[in-house]
């Protein structure tokens, strides 16, 4: 009996998770229609993708037995403590798997136990963001993940309307499914909860580079044991989010997810400019311009700017100048160093007018004439100084 229920839960989880949360749907000019389900089929659907772990909080209710019910927090060792059952290891289970497990555990003490579970607190979400982002690494995307109670009556009405006996009440807070809405903060919100998305992960990694290909973003996720275990993967066209507002490509992230952003062999300047108009990436960057410019030093300019624009913001070139020396330190440990003649009308992303990244160094070299004048000044400066001292001494003599 337990195995049959477990298989039903696994089937429901796979049916829901795959098409809605971890598979990008192709664009269509026709309005998509929800699958036709009977009332009984709808009552049996369990949106069960979330995998439990230390830090999660649950309301566990054994119907008509409040003394065996209560609120629990999964401890660092992955266990919960319940009256009569004592300590139980639950880490790695989904909510539906936990409901079935507790039903079997209560069966020796209760006739026909009916168990309901509702998540009330979600643990911090930690994901890895890799690939072509400015700062790859592990990031904590936690927000206020404790369920805010609306009111006893409203909350009970909502639960009764979205849950049926024999299904997990916790399903209403899972993605996919549930009453979710997109908030201005970039995360998915359900009854006051904030859930991080792919957008939040890329922004936490300090945004994109000129070589980032947002049309090829990959998310890898741990799969529940009842669904076969291992990991599942999806490819997202995240560029459509910032170009057409396609929210289906901005899926919710779970603890342990891996987000990988592809690298383009060429600079995608239009994409960089479009992303710079959003809060996905910092609006401005800083580069360093030195040499034969009027105002050498650090220059702050918008994302997607080119070398010529940086020199213009540094006051432009002086009358006599030589070639441009461009230096970029790549993440791979290599140095991109170029020396070329300055051309103010070179198109953006040309070899002589590259699209800049934060930290780039631009130096306008001396020309033969300006270098000669500089050397002459260095030679004559001591003599001029001595002559000036002599003139002052002569003037003060009576």
Automatic annotation (TrEMBL):
Keywords: Signal
Domain Polysaccharide export protein N-terminal: start-end pairs: 48-118
GO molecular function, one term: polysaccharide transmembrane transporter activity
Keyword Signal applies: yes
Domain of life from the UniProt record: Bacteria
Residues forming coiled coils: none
Pfam families xref list: Poly_export, SLBB
Segments forming domain Soluble ligand binding: 287-331
InterPro entries: Poly_export, Poly_export_N, Soluble_ligand-bd
Keyword DNA repair: no
Signal peptide positions (record): 1-24
Protein name (Swiss-Prot/TrEMBL): Polysaccharide export protein
Gene source species: Parasynechococcus marenigrum (strain WH8102)
């Amino acid at each position: 009996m337990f195995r049959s229920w477990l298989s039903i839960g696994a089937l429901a989880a796979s049916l829901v998770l795959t098409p809605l949360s971890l598979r990008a749907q192709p664009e269509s000019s026709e309005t998509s229609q929800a699958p036709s389900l009977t009332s009984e089929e709808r009552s049996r659907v369990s949106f069960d993708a979330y995998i439990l772990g230390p830090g999660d909080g649950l309301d566990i209710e054994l119907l008509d037995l409040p003394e065996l019910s209560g609120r629990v927090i999964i401890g660092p060792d992955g266990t919960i403590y319940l009256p009569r059952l004592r300590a139980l290891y639950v880490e790695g289970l989904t909510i539906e798997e936990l409901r079935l497990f507790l039903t079997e555990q209560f069966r020796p003490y209760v006739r026909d136990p009916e168990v309901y579970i509702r998540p009330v607190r979600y643990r911090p979400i930690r994901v890895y963001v890799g690939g072509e982002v400015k700062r790859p690494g592990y990031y904590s995307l936690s927000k206020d993940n404790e369920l805010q109670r609306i009111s006893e009556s409203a909350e009970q009405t909502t639960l009764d309307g979205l849950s049926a006996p024999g299904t997990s009440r916790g399903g209403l807070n899972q993605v996919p499914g549930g009453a979710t809405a997109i908030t201005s903060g970039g995360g998915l919100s359900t009854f006051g909860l904030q859930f991080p998305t792919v957008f939040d992960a890329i922004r936490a990694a300090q945004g994109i580079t000129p070589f980032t290909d947002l049309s090829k973003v990959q998310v890898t996720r741990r799969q529940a044991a009842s669904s076969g275990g291992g990991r599942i993967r999806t490819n997202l066209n995240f560029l459509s989010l910032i170009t057409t507002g396609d929210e289906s490509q901005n899926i919710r992230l779970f603890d342990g997810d891996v987000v990988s952003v592809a690298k383009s062999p060429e600079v995608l300047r239009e994409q960089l400019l479009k992303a710079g108009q959003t809060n996905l990436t910092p609006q401005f960057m800083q580069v360093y311009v030195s040499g034969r410019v009027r105002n050498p030093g650090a220059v702050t300019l918008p994302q997607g700017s080119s070398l010529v624009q940086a020199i213009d913001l540094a006051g432009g070139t002086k009358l006599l100048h030589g070639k441009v020396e461009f230096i970029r330190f790549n993440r791979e440990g290599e140095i991109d160093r170029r020396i070329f003649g300055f051309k103010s009308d070179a198109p953006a992303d040309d070899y002589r007018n590259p699209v800049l990244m934060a930290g780039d160094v631009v130096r306008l070299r001396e020309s033969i004439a300006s270098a000669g004048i500089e050397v002459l000044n260095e030679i004559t400066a001591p003599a001029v100084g001595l002559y000036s001292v002599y003139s002052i001494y002569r003037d003060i003599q009576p």
